[in-house]
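Next comes this protein.

***
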Amino acid sequence: MSMRFSDAISLSFSAIRHYPLRTALTALGIAIGVSAVILLTSISEGLHRFVLAEFTQFGTNLIGISPGKTTTTGMSGAVIGNIRPLSLDDAEALRRLPNVIESVAVTQGSAAVEYRQRSRHVTVLGTGAAAPKVWQFNVFMGEFLPADDPINARSYAVLGHKLFVELFKNENPLGELIRIGGYRYRVVGVMEPKGQLLGFDLDDAIYIPAARALEMFNRDSLMEIDVLYTPGADPERLSRQISSLLQARHGSEDFTIVTQEQMLETLGDILAILTMAVAAIGAISLLVGGIGILTIMTIAVNERTNEIGLLRALGSSQRQISLLFLSEALALSALGGIFGLILGATAAEIIQWAIPALPTHLSFNYIVLAELVAVSIGLIAGVFPAHRAASMDPVEALRAE
């Protein structure tokens, strides 16, 4: 009499039920590994989404030009002495290129902002009238910096929303005189709340004309020029046009051009490597769980030698005996995987609730992959014990005590 497939499954679950402590401990090893994979990848995926959202809140059709020729991406606040500075005239020249909607000069520093008896040390952003259009943020009250002659700009200032609340306590600030780094400025507007960009609080800042900021901080060069181009235009072609124009003006390629696409691609590559790294850490825990299944199943074969002999005597084939122990290993790993998924998802939700600044996001792909890996490890771990059980001599197995 041969054993049916349904009988093998029933016997496997029966063995699992009869050894609850052993089953729980074995499944726990897999559960810890799966939960580690789910938790770590959810943190990594959440970070990935957070960083991309931070960068794309200013749009994706942007090109940044910074002083100095570098081979890495990013914002450069430093000015190297042997290069020609980026100037306000450069920004104006770039604005006239085909497919360029606007360009905005940027320089940055920090200073105390004073109004009556109140004072707050904030970031000072020197920029131009096109900044709201280029950076996609709106004026809450009044207006932004006027489109004056950028070289001889008037001493006007626009408050970030948080700075407005702190200095004016929601009173109307328009037309009021304030001091920035000891210089007098007249408030002409307040920006809507924008939030943070990678830890930089855009609301706790003040905006003044770029020429005034260069004078205030005693600098010759802009920190950056941001170019907003027509959606659908080829950013690589426009980058080449920008490079040609600036080389003609400067005499050499003493600047770095970074498109938003390049920056996002670089960030995506870095975060993908990070995700794979944390998944690999979780996979080590899964491997440990697989070793636990191998150990327990090997012990189970020794303990159930009589059972194996009896099944062989009743007509079960070696293939069916092997299937019996493989299905038991698969069941242990699958149960451990399901428990690990629940544990990991719960931990991710708790972290999101307890630490809102640390974003988490459960990825369906990683959930499915973690469970498949857990089952695969269980299957591999069960091969050796199953083969050992199937190759037993039935007569010797029946004699065993």
